[in-house]
Amino acid sequence: MRNQSTTFISDFQSENMKFLFAMLLIPLLIIPVFAESQTLPTEKGTLDVKLSYDKIEPNIQTKINIDFINPQTKKIQEHIDYTVLVSKGGETVFGPIPLTHTSVGSVKIPIEFNLGEGVYTMIFEIEGILFQPIPKEKVSFDVTVGDAYAQPDNDKPISDEKNGCLIATAAYGSEMAPQVQQLREIRDNTILKTNSGIAFMTGFNQIYYSFSPSISDLEREQPIFKEIVKIGLTPMLSSLSLLNHVNIDSEQEMIGYGISIILLNIGMYIGIPLVGILKLYQFRKN
Question: What H or E segment, with its residue span, contains residue 188?
Fold first, then answer.
């Protein structure tokens, strides 16, 4: 009987390990990496260009994430030839860089906005796609630096959707809900303090917005589903909150604490249901 139970436990854990790990990542996907994003088309609509960045302070180097997006497929367009120029009041701050090629369609450019607070202009010129030259197309962004930091007017209609924590907000009813604030603190104070955390959040940020609007809409339309999401998030929130009470100063420590959180969740998501399954198994066996 003991050998049968041991084999049953082993098989059950093996089959559900991947599912558990995916569930553990849900809270990390609820909040996007960047506080600000803008997406605008080029002059003739050949490409969409997306900027993403955290709050920008003057005289501090900031990494600007740039995605070149195919407007038909809504996916990253590979092999783009472009130049970029940043200025304020007609005075150049960055560039213009020589014609540059990106094979992956996404780049990160560190820029120091060194002319004080205010609105800077960031201009892209696209000159080639998939190794084929095209007539030059421009797109211009207004980037606000300093305390005046705000969503630009041309992006206001979608600011709530693109910058909000859609799933958590729909589940808990407000962006100011303690659970949503907790997730934001975990992201800012822990996950994004490590290179592996930054890479993970950056990679999944775009994926998040491919499904989160549908899920949040379903939560608002189906109260039962909303409660299911809340129940699913609650144990993970409890375990992830432990990361707010430890000092993580290295990648190794982040991995160590991450494994500990996974083991804790195994106890909650597998251990407790497994006890019930074994009790049922024993009852039927007898």
Answer: helix 178-189
Helix (H, G, I), strand (E, B) or coil at 80: strand
**What number of residues does the chain have?**
286
Highest-pLDDT range among 103-112, 147-156, 233-242: 103-112
Q: CB within 8 A of 16, min separation 6: which ones? A: 270
Question: Is there a contact between 273 and 20 (Cβ–Cβ < 8 Å)?
Answer: no
Instruction: Please say whether the beta carbons of 39 and 69 come within 8 A.
Output: yes
Q: What is the pLDDT of residue 271?
A: 80
Closest CA to 254 of 187, 183, 182, 190: 190
The single-letter code of the amino acid at 63 is K
The two structure tokens encoding residue 252: 């190794």
Rounded to whole angstroms, the Cα distance separating 198 from 114 reads 25
Give pTM, 2 decimals.
Answer: 0.44
- The Cα 67–Cα 64 span in angstroms is 10
Does the structure show a pLDDT above 60 at 26?
A: no
Between the two ends of the chain, the Cα-to-Cα distance in Å is: 11
Residue ranges of domains in the chain, CATH in brackets: 2-32+164-273 (no CATH), 38-151 (2.60.40.1930)
Q: What local confidence, expressed as pLDDT, does residue 219 receive?
A: 84
